[in-house]
Design brief:
The complex is a heterodimer of chains A (about 160) and B (about 45). Chain A has helices at about 50-70, 95-105, 140-150, and strands at about 5-10, 15-25, 35-40, 70-75, 115-120, 130-135. Chain A has about 160 residues and is an alpha+beta fold. In chain A, strand 5 and strand 6 form a beta hairpin. Chain A is globular, with a radius of gyration of 16 Å. The longest helix of chain B has 23 residues, at about 15-35. Chain B has helices spanning about 15-35, 35-40; one strand at about 5-10.
């Protein structure tokens, strides 16, 4: 089965998106399951601004992909500017905001059969890194193994 | 489903290099794809 997939999508506001699933090469890892990168790429110019409808479409695409493919998806949060509410008390990095949006997309009752883990890696020089892992709950042990493997690199 | 967060507060140099490389690769890929935007979103004539 072809795991790499691309979906194009234009929002009601006219933003053009490419949703892209690509396999992560496991040269140095062995998890006995395909690990796929999911990218939500804004192809239009300008600052990203996501409506609830757009976020629902993203979660629908990811849900459909995971229902068809037994994989672990990871979403690495982009550092490009993104529009946030101006009344937000805490100033967030774009990648942190994307991480929260991604979690919010799956923070619903109908996604209880998934496990979602967010990973934050502090990087004072280049800006913190945010990554989310999502898969069916049957792959919980593998996701926990990935977490343990990353934790080994915490000094 | 509530996401749980794992925070790596003191990453090793090796882990930082891995994540910085991942970010750079993704930015490069994004730039290449955006440059080919007309293939994905052809302009109607």
């Amino acid at each position: 089965m072809e795991l790499d997939q691309e979906i194009t999508f234009t929002t009601d506001e006219g933003y053009e998106y490419l949703i892209r699933f690509t396999e992560f090469p496991q040269d140095n890892f062995e998890y006995n399951i395909h690990i796929m990168d999911v990218s939500l790429i804004l192809m239009s110019d300008g600052v990203e601004k996501n409506s609830t409808k757009t976020l629902l479409f993203f979660s629908k695409c990811i849900n459909e992909y995971l229902l068809k493919n037994d994989v672990i998806l990871y979403y690495y949060c982009d550092t490009a500017e993104i529009q946030m509410r101006s009344n937000r008390n805490k100033k967030m990095l774009p990648q942190e905001f994307r991480s929260k949006l991604f979690s919010a997309m799956f923070d619903q009752k109908n996604f209880e059969y998934y496990i979602l883990k967010a990973i934050k890696v502090s990087d004072p020089t280049n800006g913190d890194h945010y990554l989310s892992l999502i898969s069916h709950i049957k792959n919980t042990r593998t996701i926990e193994q990935i977490e343990q493997d990353i934790l080994k690199y915490n000094k | 489903m509530k996401a749980q967060t794992l925070h790596i507060e003191n990453p090793s140099k090796e882990l930082l290099v891995f994540f910085r490389k991942l970010r750079a690769t993704k930015e490069e890929t994004k730039a290449k794809l955006v440059a080919k935007k007309d293939l994905y979103f052809p302009k109607s004539k």
